[in-house]
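Lab notebook, bench 4. Still working through the backlog of constructs that have no structural model yet. Next entry is a single chain of 85 residues. Request: give me the structure tokens for it.
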Amino acid sequence: MEDFVFEAPKTKDYVKMLSALSLNEKKTLVVLPEASKSIILSGRNILNTKVITADQINTYDVVNADQLVVLEGALNKIDNLLTAK
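Model written out:
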């Protein structure tokens, strides 16, 4: 998914994003390229969703989620993390 930013932390905007992707009822992991206070605050109170940054990604969170939403910038960072070792 293309990178996006919320101008202000609004749970309503986060729910709209999940609805647009048909992810309302699924355990969702959203992976950001870097910490975005507005996105993290918007998603923290929503049941069955977790927001992390690319450098925090781990096997448990990936396997535990029904759906992954990975932003473009996060893919590059994950690739760099994996190829650096």
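Notes after review: The domain at 11-83 is CATH 3.40.1370.10 (Ribosomal Protein L4; Chain: A;). The radius of gyration is 12 Å. Flag for follow-up if needed.
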